[in-house]
Design a protein that fits this description.
This protein is mainly beta and about 230 residues long. Helix content is about 0%, strand content about 45%. The chain is globular.
């Protein structure tokens, strides 16, 4: 399917254009920031037989493997899942409406560095995962110890569990490969996006307590300023 499509913010406020993301493409470059103690601690490379829970408090059993095609309703149940420890940008996942594997079969997809959350709906027919660390089921009642800084290439963070709400700043972004996104859910549709941007230079964003997730790719590390 070619190389990874660039994710861009539309020129008109509220209009977002997302390029098609393809399997087995490399991740964009990353600039700036030394890695310190932050939410990235929960996203270290892990073995294929499972990944660590947020904060490293306990190990959770994998719900299904990071490689394969899974029929929704028989192979895997609908719900929200997480994969973590993906360090090379080769993790690719896809929600599909059928098993024809055509472009118009795709409901949502992503190439992942770090962590990804995805909500698989009962109406989905197939979930595809390639090159990812194993997926674990997410308990919506799970509480964490939200961090106030995060890895700028860490992927997706659950607001209120992985990271605290507030205003964050990222510096050292030398080109627009830095991309961030505030979302209302983990379905990864256009309607999921509250706000997003491609950044050169310093980035500042306010993450609200009502946001569900924050996604960051190719950015310098983020630190809470307010």
């Amino acid at each position: 399917m070619g190389m990874k499509g660039k994710i861009a913010l539309g020129a008109v406020a509220g209009i977002v254009v997302i390029g098609v993301v393809s399997a087995n493409s490399g991740s964009d470059g990353k600039d700036g920031g030394d890695k310190g103690s932050s939410a990235s601690a929960a996203h270290q490379p892990g073995a294929k037989n499972g990944s660590k829970d947020t904060g490293g408090a306990k190990e959770k059993k994998a719900a299904f493997d990071g490689d394969g095609n899974f029929v929704v309703g028989s192979d895997i149940k609908p719900g929200t899942y997480r994969t973590s420890g993906n360090t090379d940008g080769m993790c690719y996942w896809e929600r599909a409406k059928d098993a024809e594997h055509k472009m118009d079969s795709i409901l949502a997809n992503d190439n992942v560095t770090g962590t990804s959350y995805v909500t698989i709906k009962a109406s989905d027919k197939l979930f595809k995962s390639s090159g990812c660390a194993d997926w674990e089921a997410v308990d919506p009642k799970t509480k964490g110890s939200p961090a106030t800084s995060m890895d700028g290439d860490g992927g997706m963070f659950k607001v209120g569990t992985d990271i605290a709400p507030g205003t964050y700043k990222s510096t050292g972004n030398a080109d627009d490969s830095c991309y961030w996104e505030r979302t209302k859910d983990a379905a990864h549709g256009l309607n999921s996006i509250i706000a997003n941007d491609n950044v050169t230079g310093s980035a500042v964003v306010t993450i609200r307590s009502s946001d569900a997730y924050f996604k960051t790719t190719g950015c310098g590390d983020w630190k809470k300023t307010a």
